[in-house]
Design a protein that fits this description.
By secondary structure, this protein is an alpha/beta fold. The protein has one domain (5-159): 3-Layer(aba) Sandwich (Rossmann fold), CATH 3.40.50.620. It is built from six helices and five strands; from the N terminus they run βαβαβαβαβαα. A five-stranded parallel β-sheet has the order 3-2-1-4-5, sandwiched between helices. Bound molecules: 4'-phosphopantetheine. 4'-phosphopantetheine binds at residues 9-11, 38, 74-75, 103, 106-107.
Length: 161
């Protein structure tokens, strides 16, 4: 049988409803979807890798074909190790395109067998990014309709201390 396993890589610091929307869409078109958190990100994250794994695991528990993993080094190597044929990425607006195009082409250069699948999240999340969520929350803004409730709770704990 021909099954498709895809990796949805990212920083997820933190998970947003936009990410979740993409996971829901992706999980409908591939057989197995692995949400993969980059461990050695150059960005200095607010949440530890373990905290992000916990949040994503809880938020994706309802999907029978979604798992959570972490990776270091090249994405193409992780995909090979996972025997995944595709990478899933979201494109919100034209501004995402250039960066995504470069990454997809570089990954294709590194592994011509690996395909990148692009999906668009729901329009209501097109302006949502982890970076904006953190900055708006830290300035006292309400982000409760843009991230899962457990992420709001974790943001409160993080910024209280
Ligand atoms: O959510 P992000 O931060 O936009 O995700 C970026 C990510 C993790 C997908 C990207 O930085 C990545 O794949 N890093 C792993 C290193 C790698 O493979 N680099 C070459 C690909 S261009």
């Amino acid at each position: 049988m021909h099954t498709v396993k895809a990796i949805y890589p990212g920083t997820f610091d933190p998970l947003t409803n936009g990410h979740l929307d993409l996971i829901a869409r992706g999980s409908k078109i591939v057989d197995e979807l692995v949400v993969a958190i980059l461990r050695n990100s150059e960005k200095s994250p607010l949440f530890s890798v373990d905290e992000r794994v916990e949040m994503i695991t809880e938020a994706t528990a309802e999907f029978g074909n979604v798992t959570v993993a972490t990776f270091d080094g090249l994405l193409v190597d992780f995909c090979r190790q996972q025997e995944a044929k595709a990478v899933l990425r979201g494109i919100r607006a034209i501004s995402d395109y250039e960066y995504e195009f470069q990454m997809a082409m570089m990954n294709r250069k590194l592994d011509p067998e690996l395909e990148t699948l692009f999906m668009m999240p729901a329009e209501k999340y097109t302006y949502v990014s982890s970076r904006l969520i953190k900055s708006v929350f830290q300035l006292g803004g309400d982000v409760s309709s843009l991230v899962p409730p457990m992420v709001v709770e974790r943001l409160k704990v993080k910024t209280a201390g």
